[in-house]
C-alpha cells in the first residue's frame, strides 16, 4: 500500500484476485511440479513463454489435489497448449 | 375651518386626487364658492374630521360597503376578472406542485447516485475498477502481444511484528501482455507457534497497476503456518493486452510486484479492497 502522502496523485488501488486465494499447500503435494517449473525458468533465463507447459502441469496438479477450483484450461489462458504435444512450447 | 371636510375635499385628502376625476364634474370655483361666503360658520367639522380619520383606509372607489370585510376578496367585483384570478391561482398551485416535485426528485437522485454509479463502473470498468463477470471470457480470448516483453520483478516484505521468512523464489520473470504467468514465493515460520499472516500487494508503477490482473494468489486471506513449516505460495497473473496500446505505458518495461505480510490476530476480518 502506498504510504506516500501525496495529495492529488493517484494512489495504488489493490484489487482482490479474480478467483480468490490459493489454499496453502501444507503437505507439499505439488512440490515436484513446482521444482520442475523453477528449474525450467532458471534454464531459460526466466522467460515465462518457454515454461508454460510446466506451469500448466503445476496448476493441473493443484486442481487434482483439490488445492484449486477445477477450471477448464482455456479459461486459464492455456488454450493453445491443450491441442496436444505437437503445439508444444509456444 | 370646516371647509376642509367638505365631501369633495375629504375624497381628495383621503383617497388621492384620482378619486376626484370620477366624482362630480363640477368646476372648482362652484364647489369652493359656498365656503367663501361670510356667513359660513363651519359645519362642526372638527369632530367630523376626527371621525373621518378613522375611515381613511376604506377608500373604496367602487362599493362603499361598510359591512364586515372578508379576509380575501377578489380585487374587483367584475366576474370575468374574478374567473381570471381563479385561473391564475390554480395555475400557480400547479407550478408550485411541479417545483416541489422536482426538488424532491433531485434529493432522491442525489441519494441514488452512489449505488447507480457503482453499478455503472462495474459494467463499464471505468476508473480502473474491477469489472464484474468480464474476466474469464477475456482470458480465454486474449491474444499475447509477442513484441512487447516486460520484466516483472518480485519483492517480498514482512511487517516487523511478523517473524516469517518470506521471499520470492525468482527475482524476475519475462512476460508479454496477454500471457498468463506463474510465480512463486516461499514463506517459512521459524517459530514454534502457529502464526497467521495476511498479505497485501503493491504494483509499481501505479499506472501499470490497473493492467496487472491476478487470477489467483495468496493475498487478502489469512494464511496459517504451523511451527517450522515452509510453504510455496504461487501467484497466477497476467498483464492485460491493452497495456500495449496505452500511450502512457510506452516507456514502461519493468513492473514490480511487491507483497507484504502482516500478522493477523485470530478471528480478525480484514475487509477485501474493492466495494464493500
TrEMBL record, chain A:
GO biological process: intracellular copper ion homeostasis; mitochondrial respiratory chain complex IV assembly
Pfam family, one: CHCH
Annotated region (Disordered), positions in chain: 1-20
Main location (coarse class): cytoplasm
Localization, UniProt: Cytoplasm
Biased composition (Polar residues): 1-12
Domain of life: Eukaryota
Domain CHCH, chain residue ranges per copy: 30-64
Any one Gene Ontology cellular component term annotated for this protein: mitochondrial intermembrane space
InterPro entries according to UniProt: CHCH, COX19, Cys_alpha_HP_mot_SF
Keyword Phosphoprotein found: no
Keywords: Cytoplasm, Disulfide bond
Family classification: Belongs to the COX19 family.
Protein name (record): Cytochrome c oxidase assembly protein COX19
Native organism: Saimiri boliviensis boliviensis (Bolivian squirrel monkey)
Gene: COX19
Automatic annotation (TrEMBL), chain B:
Transmembrane stretches, start-end: 95-114
InterPro entries: CtaG/Cox11_dom_sf, Cyt_c_oxidase_assmbl_CtaG
A single cellular component GO annotation: protein-containing complex
Any single biological process term in GO: intracellular monoatomic cation homeostasis
Location of the protein in the cell: Mitochondrion inner membrane
Record bears the keyword Transmembrane: yes
GO terms for MF: copper ion binding
Keywords of this entry: Membrane, Transmembrane, Transmembrane helix
Xref: Pfam families: CtaG_Cox11 (PF04442)
Gene3D superfamilies assigned: Ctag/Cox11
Domain of life, per lineage: Eukaryota
Membrane topology: Single-pass membrane protein
NCBIfam families: PRK05089.1
Quaternary structure note: Interacts with CNNM4/ACDP4. Interacts with RANBP2.
Function: Exerts its effect at some terminal stage of cytochrome c oxidase synthesis, probably by being involved in the insertion of the copper B into subunit I.
Protein name, per record: Cytochrome c oxidase assembly protein COX11, mitochondrial
Organism expressing this protein natively: Saimiri boliviensis boliviensis (Bolivian squirrel monkey)
Organism placement in taxonomy: Eukaryota, Metazoa, Chordata, Craniata, Vertebrata
